[in-house]
UniProtKB/TrEMBL annotation:
<feature type="transmembrane region" description="Helical">
    <location>
        <begin position="309"/>
        <end position="327"/>
    </location>
</feature>
<dbReference type="Pfam" id="PF03116">
    <property type="entry name" value="NQR2_RnfD_RnfE"/>
</dbReference>
<feature type="transmembrane region" description="Helical">
    <location>
        <begin position="227"/>
        <end position="245"/>
    </location>
</feature>
<keyword id="KW-0997">Cell inner membrane</keyword>
<feature type="modified residue" description="FMN phosphoryl threonine">
    <location>
        <position position="174"/>
    </location>
</feature>
<feature type="transmembrane region" description="Helical">
    <location>
        <begin position="125"/>
        <end position="143"/>
    </location>
</feature>
<protein>
    <recommendedName>
        <fullName>Ion-translocating oxidoreductase complex subunit D</fullName>
        <ecNumber>7.-.-.-</ecNumber>
    </recommendedName>
</protein>
<keyword id="KW-0813">Transport</keyword>
<comment type="similarity">
    <text>Belongs to the NqrB/RnfD family.</text>
</comment>
<keyword id="KW-0597">Phosphoprotein</keyword>
<keyword id="KW-0472">Membrane</keyword>
<dbReference type="GO" id="GO:0055085">
    <property type="term" value="P:transmembrane transport"/>
</dbReference>
<comment type="subunit">
    <text>The complex is composed of six subunits: RnfA, RnfB, RnfC, RnfD, RnfE and RnfG.</text>
</comment>
<comment type="function">
    <text>Part of a membrane-bound complex that couples electron transfer with translocation of ions across the membrane.</text>
</comment>
<dbReference type="InterPro" id="IPR004338">
    <property type="entry name" value="NqrB/RnfD"/>
</dbReference>
<dbReference type="GO" id="GO:0022900">
    <property type="term" value="P:electron transport chain"/>
</dbReference>
<feature type="transmembrane region" description="Helical">
    <location>
        <begin position="257"/>
        <end position="274"/>
    </location>
</feature>
Length: 341
């Protein structure tokens, strides 16, 4: 009798890489729309310009590596990287800043290591950190949100990107920046006297975080990833803020709710920390991985040099992901201890 020769794995599901990537792109829509409402069209311009660059550079890298661009572009991974980086960048970034970030993400962080599935570091976060270290002035030039200042229109957004010398925009510190630099006002007075702070977090930022939370919960519902890493990240961040919060003195690092709804917290928790390539893969490993990122985010925000630390925390833990997986392997059937060591 002839046996059917089929290699493992034998289980097949309805999900594929292109389908997962499209689900992620769809889940970013609520956050992008809220950012556009509060900060104008700059984020959309970042995404569109970055997306074109990402597809072009992905095609170039694939041709240089002797691969078929038509086949590999279908996985939408380059577009996802561009969208995530475009969201993370200030809304009115000049064209060259977006170009340097996309090139760093696609060429340096992705194809230098062999392409999708082989990159040890999150490409979007590599691009962001390269820009933050190299061009700190441009990377901290955030426009004031709606209700605090005038929101530029589409023409201003295009000028800021492609003719930055002719665009005279207004920028200011983010709520995390303001809180970090505060050394004289009580939190209550700072909140009352500065319109940049909203009801729970930063004005505009809190609603963007809620929108990214909604998109992340939808991805959880679709089983694109498991809850372990994002929940551990948010729980560790909130726990650190609760333990150290002193009630609102001038030296306070901020309340748990402020940290959860300011900066890139929810965006990082559901769209960055959950990257299946660069994160831990075991269940216990994801819990440890997410919790350590939350711990690092709080430490860097409050005591470090950067007010929003998601990118640095993620890249540091990308280093540690293989180590975490090594020591959190599930127990092998028939063995008393985990792994096969």
């Amino acid at each position: 009798m002839a046996l059917l020769r089929v290699t493992s794995p034998h289980a097949h599901g309805p999900m594929s890489t292109p389908k997962v990537m499209r689900q992620v792109l769809l889940a970013t829509l609520p956050g992008v729309l809220v950012l556009t409402h509060f900060f104008g069209f700059g984020t959309l311009v970042n995404i569109l310009w970055g997306g074109l660059l990402a597809v072009a550079l992905e095609s170039l890298a694939l041709k240089l590596r002797g691969r078929s661009p038509g086949f590999y572009l279908k996985d939408c991974s380059a577009l996802v990287t561009a969208v995530l980086l475009g969201i993370a960048l200030p809304p009115y970034a000049p064209w060259w800043l977006v170009a340097v970030g996309i090139a760093s993400a696609i060429l340096l962080a992705k194809h230098l290591y062999g392409g999708l599935g082989y990159n040890p570091f999150n490409p979007a976060m590599v691009g962001y950190v390269v820009l933050l270290i190299s061009f700190p002035v441009q990377m901290t030039a955030w426009a004031p949100p709606r209700g605090v200042g005038e929101v530029p229109g589409l023409l201003e957004a295009l000028l800021a990107c492609f003719a930055p010398a002719s665009y005279d925009g207004v920028t200011q510190a983010t709520p995390l920046d303001v809180l970090k630099q505060n050394n004289s006002l009580l939190i209550g007075d700072l909140w009352k006297d500065n319109p940049l702070f909203g009801r729970w977090g930063g004005a505009g930022w809190e609603w963007a975080n809620i929108a990214f939370l909604a998109g992340g919960l939808w991805l959880l519902y679709r089983r694109i990833f498991t809850w372990h890493a994002p929940v551990a990240f948010l729980a560790a961040l909130a726990l650190m803020a609760a333990l150290i919060y002193d009630g609102g003195s001038s030296a306070s690092g901020g309340s748990p709710l402020f940290h959860l709804l300011s900066g890139a917290t929810m965006f990082g928790a559901f769209f960055i920390v959950t990257d299946p390539v660069t994160s831990a893969v075991s269940v216990r490993g994801r819990l440890v991985y997410g919790a350590l990122i939350g711990l690092l985010v709080y430490v860097i925000r409050v005591w470090g040099n950067y007010p929003d630390a998601v990118a640095f925390a993620v890249l540091i833990m990308n280093f540690a992901a293989p180590f975490i997986d090594h020591y959190t392997q599930p127990r092998t059937y028939g063995h008393k201890t985990g792994g096969t060591r």
